[in-house]
Write a structure and sequence with these properties.
By secondary structure, the chain is mainly α. It is 70% helix and 0% strand. It has one domain. Keywords: Sporulation.
Length: 162
Amino acid sequence: MDERRTLAWHETLEIHELVAFQANGLIKLKKMIREVTDSRLKQLYSFSIQAIEQNLKELLAFFPQAPIYNRDDEEEERADTPFYSGDLLGFAKTSVRSYAIAITETATPQLRIVLVKQLNAAIKWHEQVFNYMYEHGYYPAYNLADLLKNDVKNARRAISMK
């Protein structure tokens, strides 16, 4: 059997991260564009929306090749709580990464102490948001099939938003 007919596990998880991040970002852009009054900025928002929609469509085409993916039983669209908590999780995750990178660039001992303290706080914040999402079933971290199903649902919702 040619194993390349399915995605590798690590590829699947990277695509999950990209789709989850971009679907949340797309929803935010589509909500925010309504408030943008500057015509050039509105064009940039429109361009960004089209580019991310295309990215999602291209990435979703790979989901049937994931090692574990079952299209059945895709849930009905829920309220915005999963979106808002997912957006918060993405922000917390990005904060952890940003602090870790900043620490590697720090030469001043006092600044390093502050950044390490803030990194540890960001890690705790991420943990709290993740636990909230996991407890409410918004992030089924231990069930790849459900995780991918959520990605597809959120990406389709983001693409179909007006």
